[in-house]
Amino acid sequence: MRILQVCSAETIGGGERHVADLMRVLVERGHEVHCAVRPASQLPSSLGDLPIHWYHIGLRNALDLLSIRRLRKIIAEQNIEIVHAHLARDYPMVGLATKATSARFFLTRHHFNPIKSNPLYEASINHVTNLIAVSGAVQNALSKAFPHLRERIRVIPNWLDSRTLQRVNRADAREHLGIQAFWAIAIIGQLTPLKRQDFFLEAVSRLTANSAYERADFFIIGEANKADQTYAEKLKRLVQEMRLNGRVHFLGQVHDLPKYLTAFDIVVAPSENEGFSLATIEAMAAGCAVIAADVGGLSEIIEPDQTGVLFSPNNVEMLVQRMSELLFDSSKRNLLGQAAQATALDRYDRGKVVAQIEELYKN
């Protein structure tokens, strides 16, 4: 099949990693892959070794007429059969570009936030073949936004990319990340209020007030985008104010992070909400014990007390209790990690999940 992916994101986050790996798999399966991106996109450089046809176009907003015309031209000239959009601002643009063409139109919704629909938005995408939701929570949000398209929504989660199978052993991973403490607890994700790193620090402050946890260090992995620089500065101030210097470490963006997640005993996901959490399933695949907020896609990923532990959102006492329990109960921690690893590698297997998308394309 000749497939055109459209992604206007300029940086690489979880959703963009999904798009990148989808294209890798489609190329591996023998499809002809095309991709339309903004001029500043990081996707081409991250996939430079693959035979993908790249198109650098504006993709400025939902009604960017120049980009719509350019997309229509690409579809016509390249005989594109499938067009797949991945960001909400791209849906109407791709919808208008595919109208009255033979190309089939798909969209994937990665975010839990509801889409603010209106008659023009609905008219632009009413011919969509399928809407892919990465979780049941996202499916519900899409159903509310587009009730007349409910029957076309399919739940297909994100998957573990090939890097999760290239893990290094615990000792080497800890050396690579500079971890010397007996216990290592991490929070992973973009530094943004949604991910609640500030809440994590509050829990760490309460936990470490007890000297029984002096052998534990805590790691914040991720960077802030331009809009969240003030929040990142706030987090560093909190570490100072809470006297957590030397206990909390900011690792920034870690290259090939899934390979090194074996370094951590516990990974905490206290997000305000999540459509899906790639970091969580990657931590599970590495055998980490995961503690997650009981919200959105997180509560669908974690089987309570089987493949991880849930806590009530914004309940700092409950999070502290969960961390305390797992730190001192190594047997439970290891059992959770083993079960999480087996479940993640099976449920989010790259080949299995992408085959579901490919099947939608074909039908």
Supply the key terms.
single chain, Rossmann fold, seven-stranded parallel beta sheet, six-stranded parallel beta sheet, elongated
Number of domains: 2
| Major sheet size, sense and barrel closure | 7 strands, parallel
The poorly predicted ranges are none
Shape: elongated
The CATH class of the largest domain is identified as: Alpha Beta
Can you tell me about this structure?
It is a single chain. The protein has about 375 residues and is of the alpha/beta class. The protein is built from 14 helices and 13 strands. The protein has two domains: about 1-160 and about 350-360, Glycogen Phosphorylase B (Rossmann fold, 3-Layer(aba) Sandwich), CATH 3.40.50; about 165-345, Rossmann fold (3-Layer(aba) Sandwich). Helix content is about 40%, strand content about 15%. The strands form two sheets. Strands 3-2-1-4-5-6-7 form a seven-stranded parallel β-sheet, with helices on both faces. The protein has a six-stranded parallel β-sheet with strand order 10-9-8-11-12-13, with helices on both faces. The protein is elongated and about 70 Å long.
